[in-house]
Design goal:
Layout (H helix, E strand, L loop, with lengths): L15 H9 L15 H28 L5 H28 L11 H4 L10 H26 L4 H30 L2
The chain binds fe (ii) ion (2 copies).
Length: 187
C-alpha cells in the first residue's frame, strides 16, 4: 500500500507545537480551548435551562414521593424517589459542565420555574402525579433532543452528556407510562 503523502497545505491534525502554544494562551479559560467550536455563552445558557428543568423535576418527584398514598403507593413512591435522585444526578453533571465551560450554574430559586422547560404540578391522586411526571419527562425528551441537535459536533463532550441524560429521561417516561398502565389494570 502506498503511504499517503502528508498534505502540506491542509494538515489533517494540528501539529503538536501549535497545539501546545494554543493551550498556553488563554490558560485561564480552563477546558475551553481555541479548538472549541461551540459558542460557550450559548451552550452555558442552554445548560442553565436544562439545570433549572432538572431541579424542578427533583422538587416535583420529591413532593410526589412524600405525598403518595393509597394501595399502590409504596412501589410508586419508590419509583418517584429513584427518579428524584437521578434528576439530581443530572443537575450535578450539568453544573460540572457549565463550570468547565467557564460559566456559573444558576441555582437561584428566583426565576427557576421560568428557566425550566418542565412544570411543577403537585397533582392530587397517585394517577395525577404519574401523569404529570410523564408529561414532564416528555417535555424533557423533546428539549434534550433539541439541545443535542443544536450542539452537534461543536461540543462533543456536552453532546455526549446530553445524550446520556436523554436516554435516562426516556427510561423515566417509559417507567411512568407502565405505572399508569398497571394502575389502570388494577382499577
Ligand atoms: Fe433528568
Ligand atoms: Fe426524568
Amino acid at each position: 500500500m502506498k503511504k499517503a503523502k502528508p498534505n502540506k497545505k491542509k494538515p489533517f491534525l494540528t501539529d503538536i507545537k501549535t497545539l501546545r502554544r494554543r493551550a498556553r494562551e488563554h490558560i485561564e479559560r480552563g477546558a475551553v480551548t481555541e479548538g472549541y467550536r461551540g459558542d460557550p455563552e450559548v451552550v452555558v445558557k442552554i445548560l442553565n435551562e436544562a439545570l433549572a428543568t432538572e431541579i424542578v423535576c427533583v422538587l416535583r418527584y420529591k413532593r410526589h414521593y412524600f405525598m403518595a398514598n393509597g394501595i399502590h403507593a409504596q412501589s410508586v413512591a419508590q419509583e418517584f424517589l429513584q427518579h428524584a435522585n437521578e434528576e439530581q444526578g443530572h443537575a450535578d453533571e450539568i453544573s460540572v459542565r457549565i463550570v468547565q465551560l467557564g460559566g456559573e450554574p444558576n441555582l437561584n430559586p428566583e426565576g427557576m420555574l421560568t428557566r425550566s422547560h418542565s412544570e411543577y404540578v403537585e397533582g392530587q391522586s397517585l394517577v395525577d402525579m404519574i401523569k404529570e411526571n410523564l408529561v414532564a419527562e416528555r417535555i424533557a425528551i423533546d428539549s434534550y433532543s433539541e439541545m443535542i441537535a443544536y450542539v452537534t459536533d461543536k461540543d462533543p463532550t456536552t453532546r455526549r452528556m446530553l445524550e446520556g441524560i436523554l436516554a435516562v429521561e426516556e427510561e423515566h417516561a417509559e417507567d411512568m407510562a407502565s405505572l399508569l398502565q398497571t394502575l389502570d389494570e388494577h382499577k
